[in-house]
Structure formats: C-alpha cells, structure tokens
Design brief:
Blueprint: E1 5-11, E2 14-19, H1 30-41, H2 43-49, H3 64-76, H4 85-88, H5 92-98, H6 107-115, H7 119-134
Antiparallel strand pairs: 1-2
C-alpha cells in the first residue's frame, strides 16, 4: 500500500511533503530523497571541502557547498549540461534539495567553479568517493 503523504525534513519555514492525492508540482521530487541521503552521508559537504575556494568571502553570493550540491543533484536528475541551470536555478525542488530558499547559481557561476578545480582536487575528490564507497 502506497502512503498518501511523505514528510521530509523542513527547509527553514518551508514544510516539504510528497502528496499523492493529486496535483503536479515537480517531476524532480527524487531530489528530495537525494537530499535526505546526502544529509546522512554528508557527501556533497565533504566534496566541497576538497575544493579550494579562493573567492573573496565578502563578494561571495553562492556558497561553494551549495554550488557543489546544486551541480551534483542536477547531474543526478539528468541535467548534466550547465545551460540547464539557467532555468533550474529557480526550481523550488532543486532549491529545497540544496538547502536554499533563494535563486541558485547560474550557469556562468557554476562553470567558473568547475574551471577552478585543479588536478590535485580531482585526485582528492576521487579518493573521497572511493573511501565513501568502501564505508
């Protein structure tokens, strides 16, 4: 028997529910499940720590951890092209999954984040993912 309603952990004052009684809000509700798994494993948080953020903190609008989450969750939802994020940045399901209740980073900001990644960061991320897999 399928439950009529699933309740997820809230984001600020936003209650998050999957209600199967009707209405269509998003086709990407799987992101909410991914959010819950990520909260338990803290994988995107750990990935963000292996990347260098050389930006001036005073000028930062989007935190590195949020951008990593946005990019990983976007790829997991089938949006591997950065151009998709011009629309996705305002998607409430992705905003909720990333833990933000505001507009997310655009394609140019995400591209700059990816371009700053050096060889050592890729090696560190690979090691992190390998050790997480073993855990």
């Amino acid at each position: 028997m399928v439950p009529e309603k699933l309740t997820f952990s809230p984001l600020s004052r936003r209650q998050i529910e999957a209600d199967f009684s009707g209405g269509h809000i998003t086709s990407d509700a799987g992101l909410l499940l991914l959010r819950e798994v990520d909260k338990q494993h803290q994988l995107t948080q750990r990935l963000a720590r292996v990347l260098d953020d050389t930006r001036n903190p005073v000028l930062v609008r989007h935190k590195l951890q949020t951008m990593v989450r946005q990019r990983v969750f976007g790829v997991a939802a089938g949006y591997e092209d950065l151009n998709d994020h011009e629309t996705l940045r305002a998607d409430q399901a992705l905003q909720t999954a990333t833990g933000e209740d505001a507009i997310l980073a655009g394609k140019s900001t995400l591209c700059r984040m990816e371009q700053r990644v050096d060889r050592q960061a890729v090696i560190n991320a690979h090691e992190l993912l390998w050790h997480h897999f073993i855990e």
